[in-house]
Amino acid sequence: MRRKTVVVAAAIVSLVASLAFTFGCKNGGGSQNGPGGSGGGNQTGEIVIGHYASMTGDTAHFGQDTDKAVRLAVEEVNAQGGIKGRRVKLVTLDTRGDATEAANAVTRLIDVEHVSAIIGEVASTLSLAGGRVAQRRGIPMVSPSSTNPAVTAIGNNVFRVCFIDPFQGTVMAKFARENLRLTKVAIIKDVRSDYSIGLAENFRRAFTQRGGQVVAEQSYSAGDTDFSAQLTAIRDSGAEAIFVPGYYGEVGAIAVTKQRLGINVPLLGGDGWDAPDLFRIGGAALEGSFYSNHFAPDAASDRARRFISAFQRRFGSEPTGLGALGYDAAMVLFEAMRRAQSVTPATIREGLTATRNFEGVTGRITINAQRDADKSAVVLRIRGGRAVYETTVQP
Ligand code: PHE
Asked: What are the per-10-residue average pLDDT scores of the chain (395 residues)?
């Protein structure tokens, strides 16, 4: 009975949400503010910021962990009196991991919620969809964790507080060649993800430049559950490791299939692995694998340790790299607002552009000329069902 009520309630919520999306979409056609515009956002009262994120769907960990951390940052800044005496209000909209929903969410944040700035998305494909809307409407957007170079190349309103995939691909290629001394690897990538396609390409280039060989390249599509054909092809290729630049759900399933097929080589991957569900799905099949990431909780700075305990106190779980980057995105945004005389989208954009040596929980953040952050990466090793810090790689 209780269950039924919950299900019905959930259905109503999702119906209302989709109506709201439709409404936002209908009203979002106009483009009042070009890239140079200073419109958007209230000039007095609360400062409203938007967050669009995969709160549900296959990558729900990305949205949920990020949103908790952004919320924590907002609560902290409000506890300190807000920004220029104004409270910060956070509005979060669910993208469900879908690009059309992401674009609609950004439209709605601007048209209905009148946000001054936007945080989001995690997945590069969704940041590309949402970022184009933010750019067209002249509202600054900070992606915490999208690593595909094309995201900030959209235009002068789109920023990020993380490194990009040409670097991340090089990190793992170098690690595979120099630390693991591998010469032959296979790649299996998600052809529905700009992140996965780009990171596969960047890894391939860096690995072959260093004298390595990619002996097989296979594809899948997000949502697939059967990877046996691809892994059978890889088994017969002589690969000493398999690079899997995907998201945690599919990566976990790929690990399980790899083990079932008796392929005894480690998997290598990137930040898209970063979720507790990776271990729940992949289990023992992941032992001895490695991935690059933005954050290693077991090698955290004092600043990061304070964040981890505040997050744990507030939400009862340890944050992943997503949370750490979400917190940094929000704090960099607040700092940009503080720097501005009055808080408008245009002055926030200038403030973001001027970000130098900001001490974040994921490291020191300087926004460069491409509106990206030059930062180091960590490599993590999976041991005993956990990701353990292995090494740090500088840009
Ligand atoms: N970098 C990934 C992308 O661009 C997103 C991601 C970041 C996922 C960090 C997990 C952790 O799609």
From this structure: 42 41 32 40 86 98 98 98 97 98 98 98 98 98 98 98 98 98 98 98 98 98 97 97 98 98 98 98 98 96 97 98 98 96 94 97 98 97 97 92
The answer to whether the beta carbons of residues 248 and 61 sit under 8 Å apart is yes
Amino acid 321 reads: G
* 3-state DSSP of 238-289: CCCEEEECCCHHHHHHHHHHHHHCCCCCCEEECHHHCCHHHHHHHHHHHCCC
For residues 224 and 196, the answer to whether their CB atoms sit within 8 Å is no
Lining ligand 1 with CB less than 6 A are: 62, 122-124, 145-148, 195, 271-272, 274, 321-322
CB 143 within 8 A of CB 160: yes
Q: Which atom of ligand 1 is nearest to the CA of 325?
A: 9
Do you find a cis peptide bond into 121, omega within 30 degrees of 0?
yes
CA of 12 relative to ligand 1 center, distance in Å: 31
Pocket probe for ligand 1: among 66, 145, 192, 291, the residue whose CB has the most ligand atoms within 8 Å is 145
The domains of the chain, with CATH numbers, are 2-163+302-376 (3.40.50.2300), 165-293 (3.40.50.2300)
Query: How far apart (Å, rounded) are the C-alpha atoms in residues 157 and 394?
Result: 27
Residue 194 CA: which ligand 1 atom is closest? 12
Distance 147 CA to ligand 1 centre (A): 6
What is the distance in A from the centroid of ligand 1 to the CA of 323?
Answer: 12
